[in-house]
Amino acid sequence: MTVTSLLDMRFAAEHLEDGPPALVAILEDTRAFDGCLGVQIVTDVTDPTHVVAVEHWESLEHDEAYRAWRAGPGASGLGDYLAGPPTLTRFTDGASL
């Protein structure tokens, strides 16, 4: 079953100029990671520091492998641009309600 992961983050005010381009560059590796079906960035219309990465993964296992890679050898340095730690929420797609 596919998974949609929402990574909710806020850029530090002093990184509003350089943070978004850094995120775009970081996401090149995310999109190339095994099991990634795509990533979209959405920005809060009233607060440009608030962005959410909407990631689609083939499976929870692919997403978990990606998170482990980012926590280790694939560390991106994204946290240097953020006002605080991002929040990750994951959803299964296609669940019957």
UniProtKB/TrEMBL annotation:
Keywords recorded for this protein, A-Z: Monooxygenase, Oxidoreductase
Gene3D superfamilies, from UniProt?
Answer: 3.30.70.100
Q: Where is the ABM domain?
A: 3-91
Domain of life, per UniProt, equals Bacteria
Instruction: Write one Gene Ontology MF term.
Output: monooxygenase activity
- What protein name is recorded for this chain? Antibiotic biosynthesis monooxygenase
Source organism: Leifsonia virtsii
